[in-house]
Amino acid sequence: xxxxxxxxxxxxxxxxxxxxxxxxxxxxxxxxxxxxxxxxxxxxxxxxxxxxxxxxxxxxxxxxxxxxxxxxxxxxxxxxxxxxxxxxxxxxxxxxxxxxxxxxxxxxxxxxxxxxxxxxxxxxxxxxxxxxxxxxxxxxxxxxxxxxxxxxxxxxxxxxxxxxxxxxxxxxxxxxxxxxxxxxxxxxxxxxxxxxxxxxxxxxxxxxxxxxxxxxxxxxxxxxxxxxxxxxxxxxxxxxxxxxxxxxx
Length: 249
Known about the structure:
By secondary structure, this protein is α+β, with helices and mostly antiparallel strands. The protein folds into 2 domains: 4-99, no CATH class; 105-152 and 159-248. It contains 8 helices and 8 strands; from the N terminus they run βββαβαββαββααααα. The strands form 2 sheets. Strands 1-2-3-5-4 form a 5-stranded mixed beta barrel. A hairpin with an 8-residue loop joins strand 1 (4-13) and strand 2. Helix 1 (43-58) packs across helix 6 (201-208). The chain is globular, with a radius of gyration of 18 Å. It starts with a strand and ends with a helix.
């Protein structure tokens, strides 16, 4: 399970995020960027965040530590902004926190060419999980302590918003136009050969088990199985979903 901490103080909103995440201090003496269940995207964005971030971690990407953050409604009245008050009241209970990386800078792949293997690895991950939010304008990558860190995966696993046929999602090509790494990748074949042996059903079940039951809705075990099935079938369908890199570059 993800470590569970309690929110002590709402520090500041991070208004560059569409879901209005906030910086929160917690009882483990940590500071986390918290995404709320009561935000417009709802709990499914948090489910995607956990699953994709934890898969990325197991593929040896650097990802900030995730925790669940227990929020008490008593924090809401202290906030002068009515929008934030409403968000906190709507998010009482478990929310998702990502370790705050103080002083981190937004990574600029247009100014500093990424290492080719890293570029291919990241594009493969985003293509497999159908990440629609990794553009050069908003790469969701941070430069911190000499390394690139991956953040914000709430826009992955788009199939969960409309559970259609598994086969349709498994075959759906990834549109890499505008993807921050597309200009630096020639092929995903070698990356796929390496990663498909790592992303086993055991690994997927382990990662999906980290998602709190209350974010999954009715029948959480069946919901977990659906995520594993969709991702497994998409993995098997490669290279059908590989992006057209000629048009994306």
